């Protein structure tokens, strides 16, 4: 034994084994849709036989873009984001791209590092849901993406209303919550939102306010859109106040899930729930919580198709707003 690592296979080795040209092999890994399926499969089989792994970094140096698509999001535990990422991965794989996922956990520095990393890798495009969608949030670190010319699609949370985005009609969602409250006859409700400065929170609350009369007593509590944080904050809230509500409104599915958890722990009786977005897995257990339903398949399709349209410089509707509908009321 010499202790030396075996020599890595090259494109030339694959071409020789598959009986094709070097260019055809290279095209299989950089633009697979341009290679006939039977030829592509023969090349991939040869690559597997030789244990060949394409050098993505080297490819990106030679070309203006890599075959990487970046997703930077606050919380992949959010069922909506997970659904969109899954659809994007499926479409990316079909087109010969790989998806690199970063979870920021509400940390601006983590978001900045993720974006810088993707730009350094010459990512073909980036889907971004910023840490915070508010006027106070410093977005100067996103300039590295904008200045690089990397295609960017904003997901849900926006930092610039002029840039491409796929987002919800948050005011309308709030109006539908008010309709559900009125139809249920609730008179004393607690609305639990995300960050107080969040545009999404503000627009949803504005929609709720516009549809409720003075006979409905509303208390607002600002928490966090992430499940664990919202759960801890609600637990602390109910340990210090002695108030009775007949309904808790969660401004997203994660918040409502956290509210259900806390309510069960405190053994609250005769308490209803209304949610913007469905509560994860609730209907699997036949728990039919009234909510504003948004089509996750539509959302995922729009984000994925718009991302590839931007990468391929094809025309697309840059700013798409998705409307929701009442369900289980």
From TrEMBL:
Protein name as it appears in the record: LacI family transcriptional regulator
One Pfam family of this chain: Peripla_BP_1
GO molecular function term, any single one: transcription cis-regulatory region binding
InterPro entries in the cross-refs: HTH_LacI, Lambda_DNA-bd_dom_sf, Peripla_BP/Lac1_sug-bd_dom, Peripla_BP_I
Annotated SMART domains: HTH_LACI
Species of the source: Jejubacter calystegiae
Every HTH lacI-type domain range: 9-63
Keywords (A to Z) from UniProt: DNA-binding, Repressor, Transcription, Transcription regulation
Domain of life per record: Bacteria
SUPFAM superfamilies listed in its UniProt record: lambda repressor-like DNA-binding domains, Periplasmic binding protein-like I
